Batch of 3 targets.
Target 1
Amino acid sequence: MRIIIVGDGKVGYTLAEQLSKENHDVVIIDRDDDALRRASDALDVMCVKGNGASGAVLREAGVDKCDMLIAATSGDEMNMVCCLTAKKLGARNTAARIRDPEYARDITMLKRELGINLVINPEQATAAEISRLLRFTGASNIEHFSRGRVELMRIVITESDPLCRVKLSSVRKRSLGNILFCAVERADDIFIPHGDTAFEVGDKVYVIGEPTGLSTFCKQQHIQTVRVKNMMIVGGGRIGRYLAVYMLKLGVSVRIVEIDPEICAQLQEEVPDALVILGDGTDQDLLNAEGLQQMDAFIALTGRDEDNLMVSLYAHQSGIAKVVAKATRQNYAALVRGMGLTSVVSPKHITAAQIVRYVRAIHNTGDTHLDAMYRIIEGQLDILEFSVGKSSPYVEIPLKNLPLNKNTLLAAIIRENRVIIPDGNDHLAIGDGVILVAHDQLLTNLEDAFHG
């Protein structure tokens, strides 16, 4: 596909990096010489200097032959104009990063009037991701698929864990609910487990299944599922506001610590049910005075990665059940994970993942369609959701007779709102939703998952 990215900031660069690795023809438009030079030197992309809303610049970038234009500049209005102009000049699909909550209320109208196919709000998407993480306090990551009917959870194996040093073939004989172990991250290695796999201390294990099945699994494995009743948010920016609204609707008591008096005043007006505290959220004495020890969850969302990670480590050491930190730099995230802080979210990666998921959904071939794609473990593992079309050659054949590729796992089948965690005797049917786990595999349709 030919993809034009307007804006070579954090999100734009991350998108260009991921999409170029997937062999898409990527063009970056930006006004900044240094940003374009960095992209040109590091990535296999074409760079065009100029204003992405300019028809002349878009034509130079080949907008008339463009399959997808992604507007990811820092300005919402700029992104909307880019999409409108690109659509008028022949771009088949457009995506815009729109952050202002005021625009979010009219998003349906904006998409219709401006011809925008996909709208991404990074702060809202990050808040939604954090709210999922808070569902299981013992899990370090939660993803959901097929409109929430299937979820993926990551747990870390400890010395006292009932799964530690137990072969997977033995674990499967236990009554663990409707779940499947689909991937293991061990040190620098990532693999899909088999019957002889024995989990080791420190393994990050990915478990997929129905929400009720995951709940049963957590209870049986004594994984913490304490309901979050009280939480503290440090940083009252847009992510903090969205998250506070989400959690208040669930009946959670929310405290927000914010150092800026003007933002505090806005929070008191926009989120009146939250307790807003004016102060420095990195001050340990302040946090303790405001009841840190009584919190079930602690979320650090300031504008500085260093502050978020340091204060989160303090909360973790204070025994808070669930701690989540926002970090833009992935090298910081990798560092603190080694110190026990496992839940680190990156708005730019969450945004890029949603857009890449959409790109891959429209870049499908044949009669089996890619509906969604999730990238986890810093892009090293793909979770893909397909729908089975009428001409698929793999319907009504027992899975044990299908030649599935190495490093690929058929994790779930969704049939008429029923979730099937399959075994070898199950089969695919026309209209099924299929969730695949793939490591080191580039899949654009269901047929790519099978060899022969």
Note: The CA atoms of residues 234 and 257 lie 5 Å apart.
Target 2
Amino acid sequence: MKRDLIFPKVQKVLAVWGFITLIIFLFVLVTQFRALGTLGMVVGLIESKSFAHINLNQFLNGSTVGIVASLKDPYSQYLDPKTRQELNERMSGEFGGIGVYVLQDEAGRMRLISPIEGTPAYNAGIKHEDIILQIGDGSIMNMNQDDVVSLLRGEPGTQVKILVYREAEKKELEFTIIREIISVPSVKTDVLPEYSEIGYVRLNIFQSHSHQELQEKINELIEKKHVKKLILDVRDNGGGDLEASLGIASLFLENQDIVTVADADGNKTIHKAKNAVFKIPLVLLVNHNSASASEILAGALQDNNRAKLVGEKTYGKGVVQTVYLLPDGGALKLTTSRYYTPNGFDINDIGINPDYVVANANGINRDMQLEKAIEILR
């Protein structure tokens, strides 16, 4: 009896969905008739006149890439299975590569950022902010950041040729570098030699385990090194995992807002910190390459008057991407949210202004930003 009652309901639902699908199809057909006609003609001409024929898989893959590219969103991207795997490796902190970060600057150029000490890029002589011109024998023009990173990655033991432009020397330089397994520590700590009460913490990337790693490292500084003040450095940190930035901000904030995230429909979620773990004085170092999750942390600490920001205006990436897994083993990285600092500021394409603007001059072997942070804490 129950099945007899349910079946007509299922039929009704299917009929409604079928009607909606038909309406959508007719709408697309009417409004996009010329574009669909052009597509059909192109396919027909290729199949009937061209020596080359359409590979269905490549056709569908290219269509997928083209749809995402049409969004004109530099952060949305279709990731094929190989690129998706590389993204997973990058977030886990261990991968085959040369040991350098890549960040796209305001002019659209791809810069090599902060070669990690001891890695192939560092040993080969790659410098901070070298501009990539070519990888292998091909130009990287019109590539996005993920495409460039993918080309630099590869099997350990293989080589990659990179042509860069070094602005400080006004010349092009070519490097041939052998890839290695790169294990990236997300946190590096030290005690400043002349100021033993001040701990220094360098946060390289926001990975899934960065929150726990940072807490452990700061605890060591406090318990074993007896530091009473802290400098947290997110310069040249291009971001990473949103949850990691929330966890790290929560280490320093007490029942305060961290960030408001708004989706495409305008629905807002306010992320709040609970009980602060560390209440010691804090300064945050930022620069033009501090982006995304770094800016979430910077905005939360600044708006809640928890830390002073020292350095340069940040990058200005105030949008959040969600990664959706796809049937082919790839993924769609899609901009799904925009975030606002606790005081309601939208920093996308704007950045965050530090409390103390300090620039490090080229060619001078002094870290003026770090010196200013020390001055503030003392």
Note: Confidence is low (pLDDT under 50) at residues 1-6.
Target 3
Amino acid sequence: MNLAHEALYTDRVDDEGEAFAGPQGFRAEVRIDDASWTAISPIAICDKALNALVDTVKPTTTPARCDIIFSGDNALADLNQTFRSKGGATNVLSFPSGEGVDDDGVQFLGGVALAHGVCAREAAERDISLAHHATHLVVHGVLHLLGHDHEEEDARQDMEALEVSILTGLGIADPYGEAERA
């Protein structure tokens, strides 16, 4: 993993060279599989997103962790086909683990994967920064790991309201816009 762009977050790399983000008790191991992501700061994005999640929704009663992978379109297309039987890449996928608390008292929530090309295209289409869009998708993906979904209308509205609240606290504009909510 190339972490040269993460110079301000060198304290976020453990003795084994694994990068992590988030507050104590709600950590993510961050992996950068596509060098295109190095234009932004994935560890900083995850750190901000996880801290904001904890501040806003108090997500777990026990220490928890997850994996967040910044990857490419091909990897997400493979995952999308394998696990959802859908062709092509998507912006973000979440894989809740369903695991309980381990022997160390930590619950592994699962993993979130983002596709650089899809995310970059969406950010450009919406005229927003890639960093803001990636932050939104990290929040969105981790909320899925915490059991939120958008399959039913009420659940969708609740999840979007949480996302907007978290993002607003980070100074990021409502990604859904009032027009889409009406």
Note: The CA atoms of residues 100 and 107 lie 6 Å apart.
